[in-house]
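Quick illustration for those who missed Monday's session on complexes.
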Amino acid sequence: MNADDRPDETPSPSDGPTPSLEPHQVFDRVGGLPAFEALVESFYARVATDELLRPMYPEDLEPGKRRLALFFAQYWGGGDLYGRERGHPRLRMRHAPFPIDPAAALRWAELMAAAIGDQGFDDEVDQLLLGYVARATPTLINQLPDEVQALPRQPGE
Ligand code: HEM
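Prediction with protoporphyrin IX containing FE bound:
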């Protein structure tokens, strides 16, 4: 093929796949902190009536709401919003006081996915947020069922 036979490679906005959204661009795409506050409101409204998760949360849900909204806003490109109030996230350490077994983690992820679905974000944003929840939630499991704890191990372990 000589150069003249090649298709025009000048990109045009309507050509090809949509440029993929970078995680740090989500904050601007959704309209900043208020969008994360709305997401967290929707999530906490579900937690408030959830028989598995509600008992783990303190009576006053407001401080936790704010922290989660700031954390998400920071994670998705809003700058040091969480860090200014709380320092390094250290999520595993901060969740250590709560008995998070696989069932609790799954419920958390389901309620968050439902809350994300309620926001009317565009598909690219939904995919990034849902992917994060699916990856991050299992890392916070700190209680395994007895059957798992009792699996045979190497002698000496
Ligand atoms: C993607 C997964 C998760 C993220 C990003 C996340 C994030 C956070 C953040 C940022 C805080 C506030 C930390 C602080 O500054 O004190 C928090 C608190 C908390 N999280 Fe999570 N979390 C996740 C999963 C879970 C799961 C699976 C559970 C339980 C099933 C859970 C239960 C709690 C509780 C009970 C608090 C304390 C709330 C309060 O003090 O009002 N979290 N979480």
